[in-house]
Each structure stands twice: as C-alpha cells, then as structure tokens.
Design goal:
Protein name: Bifunctional adenosylcobalamin biosynthesis protein
InterPro entries: CobU/CobP (IPR003203), P-loop_NTPase (IPR027417)
Enzyme class: transferase
Oligomer: single chain
Strand order of the largest sheet: 3-2-4-5-1-6-7
EC number: 2.7.1.156, 2.7.7.62
Keywords: ATP-binding, Cobalamin biosynthesis, GTP-binding, Kinase, Nucleotide-binding, Nucleotidyltransferase, Transferase
Distance between the termini: 11 Å
C-alpha cells in the first residue's frame, strides 16, 4: 500500500468518457493554484483542433499550461509546490511520445512512479484505459497497450486515489 503522504490521483477511462472533465473538477475543487501539464503534440490539424478545444473548455485564464511531451517527471518536479494542483493529461500520449522518441520507457515509468509519493502538489493524472478491447493486430500497437497497462498498474499503486470513468460517471476504485 501507498504512504499516506501521497496526494496523487489516477483517472482512467475510454475515449470521450468524461475523464478530463472529471479530473479538472478534482483540481478545481482544491482551491489551489491550477497547473495543466499537456503531453500531447499537435502533429496535424485535427490534433491542433483538439488541443484548442481542451483549452477553451477549461478556460486558460484559470490555468497555467505547460507543454511537456517527454520529460514529464522533470516538469512535475520543477512546478511541485504545496500551493498547487497539477493535472497531467494524458499519460497514454506520453507513452506514445516515449515510444516514438525511443526513450528508455522502464526508466521513465520508474522515475514518475518514484516521484509521486513525495510530491507536494495535488496531482491528478489522466490516462486512456486501452486494455479492454481486442488484441491489437500489430506489434507496435501491442507494445503500446502493454506499456500503458504496466504504467497504469504502477501509477495506481503509487496513488492515493484511482477513478474509472465511463459515460461521464466516476467509479472510485481506490482511496
């Protein structure tokens, strides 16, 4: 079990399940200074539109946004403070970025997992649950699914709270 000092929460769900909206409400309810760490990269117009919609939905006047596609743990350490609530959206995009950059995924996962229990900020990490569907038909997709599944287990173990979101409804799984 996790040390009682953890202030981290993991929010999992499928695409368009309402997980980001739920995670934003967890942050808003704290009354702390809000920080948003975006891991996505705008490789095309559709992704640029998604990013713009996310910003419009949350209202960037209330949030300080940090774009960090690769060095997530270092970014979190740099902004870690007791007076802050930090939303990371999302871990599965981070996994994709790590794979594409051919980073040491095990080392990156370990660094993030080890950081969480000692973090001073209230952390909420969002991720897509990708293990509920069919077995992917190609090696890269299977590796992605496996990496995401392992990361989710590690983050869940290091978090005080874990939520699963389906159809906009939260199911509290831990904490």
């Amino acid at each position: 079990m996790l040390s009682s000092s953890s202030r981290a929460a993991l929010v999992l769900g499928g695409a368009r399940s309402g997980k980001s909206r739920f995670a934003e409400s967890l942050i808003s309810d704290t009354g702390l200074e809000r920080h948003y760490v975006a891991t996505g990269q705008a490789w095309d117009d559709e992704m640029r539109d998604r990013i713009a919609q996310h910003r419009a939905d949350r209202g960037d006047l209330l949030w300080t946004t940090h774009e960090e596609p690769l060095d997530l743990t270092a970014r979190l350490a740099a902004i870690d403070s007791e007076d802050r609530a930090v939303l990371v959206d999302c871990l599965t995009l981070w996994v994709t970025n790590l794979m594409m950059a051919e980073r040491n995924i095990a080392a990156e996962f370990s660094a993030l997992t080890e950081f969480l229990p000692g973090a001073k900020a209230r952390l909420v990490l969002v991720s897509n649950e990708v293990g509920l569907g069919i077995v992917p038909e190609n090696r890269m997709a299977r590796e992605f699914r496996d990496h995401a599944g392992r990361l989710h287990q590690m983050i869940a173990a290091a978090s005080a709270e874990v939520y699963f979101i389906a159809a906009g409804l939260p199911l509290k799984m831990k904490g």
